[in-house]
Specification:
- Helices cover about 5% and strands about 50% of the residues.
- The chain is mainly β.
- It contains 2 helices and 33 strands.
- It has 4 domains: about 1-125, Sandwich (Immunoglobulin-like), CATH 2.60.40; about 135-230, Immunoglobulin-like, CATH 2.60.40.770; about 235-330, Sandwich (Immunoglobulin-like), CATH 2.60.40.1930; about 340-435, Immunoglobulin-like (Sandwich), CATH 2.60.40.1220.
Length: about 425
């Protein structure tokens, strides 16, 4: 039946894109999307581009889409691009394994009533894929239960039966608030997702998750409850060394148990650096033994000028945790120290007969602006054993360092520069070996 229709619709000369010659044709097909004889998914939209604007009244009778299982295939035909392109959208997805045929007869006319140069046939083969399914098997809530104003993460995986079913978005309805996550494909059948959220009041909150695939298949929803507690008393505080830092500066944090809280010490600190709702960097600090105060020096990666939010989760010896937030402003200017031209020499240092009397090494410090400079030497276990400070320095400086009291070994050196206003600080780390 299909071939009978084809013979009645198409003129005696059938052309495809491969044998068109625009130089000697008047009104013709320039392009099809997808190309003729392509394998297509069952939700494919078919586009045919002509070289001239089409008379809309001639489209329905002379542009027909049929298949081995449907004659014709029901769908919508649209004219776009100054009536030069016909777009066919099927009312329902094509059947898996079907063959779709686009028949264009030379009864199609241009806007100035030129007939199509000939009839055309374009054939497409629909993928014979398994039924499209996707589902969220389970998801995790970390930490759980959560505390008021504590950020927590909802994460999990979406499983799907074929690549065309891969999830486009994952939705979470949390107590009536709907948020969206864009999943990341792990392989051809698995994608991962995560959400960050917080509650501002204690209670039990329902959460429902579902995924939507790229071909608009929706998974069955999966639900669970999240328990939010008031939280513990505040037992710790955190401060940042400055409210403003330059790009390339090391950020100094101090985390300390409050003086009136006894018999508690810090066991672990999780830190995240966030800008514009994106986590740029993170680290975990775990001391060898519980401490009541921890100083942290860290240069976060991937940050840009602007506000930087520092999120801390501090754990103590009583298995309690406290959530703290700090804010700093990152400025888009160079650091105080020219790091490429600041160093310790000689390094390694070996005493010689001419040096035994002085026992000195030197630090070259090249500054981009006037600042005070402090140089500190630490042993491998973190003990401060030497420091020297010079005020009102600028430009290129050579600072002698008396190491006569230092034993042989490796030392960690901090070169700290602070601008005149006391706001900006650059901390440069170096290693020095004394033989």
């Amino acid at each position: 039946m299909i071939y009978f229709i084809l013979l009645n619709l198409i003129s005696s000369r059938i052309l495809t894109n491969n044998n068109l010659n625009p130089a000697n044709l008047a009104f013709y097909v320039k392009e099809t999307i997808p190309e003729d004889s392509s394998i297509i998914p069952n939700n494919q939209i078919i586009e045919v581009l002509f070289n001239k604007s089409i008379d809309p009244s001639t489209v329905n009778l002379n542009f027909i889409v049929t298949s081995l299982t449907q004659n014709p295939v029901p769908g919508e035909k649209q004219l776009i691009d100054q009536n030069k392109k016909i777009i066919f959208t099927p009312d329902e997805p094509f059947k898996n394994g079907d063959t779709v045929i686009v028949l264009i007869s030379n009864g199609l006319r241009s806007i100035d009533q030129e007939p199509l140069d000939s009839g055309y046939v374009f054939t497409y083969f629909v993928e014979d894929t398994q039924e499209c399914e996707l589902y969220i098997y389970e998801f995790n809530i970390i930490p759980h239960p959560v505390y008021v104003n504590e950020e927590f993460e909802i994460s999990g995986n979406v499983y799907y039966t074929s690549p065309q079913c891969s999830p486009d978005k994952v939705f979470a309805d949390i107590a009536g608030d709907t948020i969206v996550s864009i999943p990341e494909n792990e392989d051809d059948t698995l994608s991962s997702f995560s959400f960050i959220y917080r509650f501002n009041a204690p209670g039990t909150y329902p959460v429902t998750l579902w995924a939507v695939s790229k071909n608009n298949i929706t998974s069955e929803p999966i639900s669970e409850s999240i328990y939010c507690e008031k939280g513990t008393y505040q037992w710790v505080k955190a401060t940042v060394g400055s409210s403003k830092y330059l790009i390339g500066d090391t950020i100094r944090l101090n985390v300390k148990v409050l003086d009136d809280i006894l018999d508690i010490a810090i066991t672990k600190i999780n830190i995240k650096f966030r800008q514009n709702d994106d986590i740029k960097d993170s680290l975990t600090v775990t001391p060898d033994e519980p401490l009541r105060e921890i100083n942290i020096l860290y240069l976060p990666k991937g940050i840009a000028p602007g506000n930087l939010e520092i999120l801390l989760v501090v754990y103590n010896t009583e298995d309690e945790r406290e959530n703290l937030r700090l804010f700093v402003n990152i400025l888009p200017t160079k650091g105080i120290i020219d790091t490429k031209n600041t160093y310790i020499y000689p390094n390694p240092y070996t005493p010689t007969p001419t040096q035994n009397n002085q026992e000195e090494i030197f630090s070259r410090v090249l500054l981009n602006e006037e600042a005070s400079v402090e140089i500190k030497f630490f042993t491998e276990d973190g003990t401060l054993v030497y420091s020297i400070k010079k005020d009102n320095l600028s430009g290129d400086n050579i600072i002698p360092i008396d190491i006569s009291s230092l034993k042989s070994g490796m030392y960690y050196v901090q070169i700290i520069a602070k601008a005149k206003d006391g706001i900006y600080e650059t901390i440069l780390k170096r290693e020095v070996i004394i033989k």
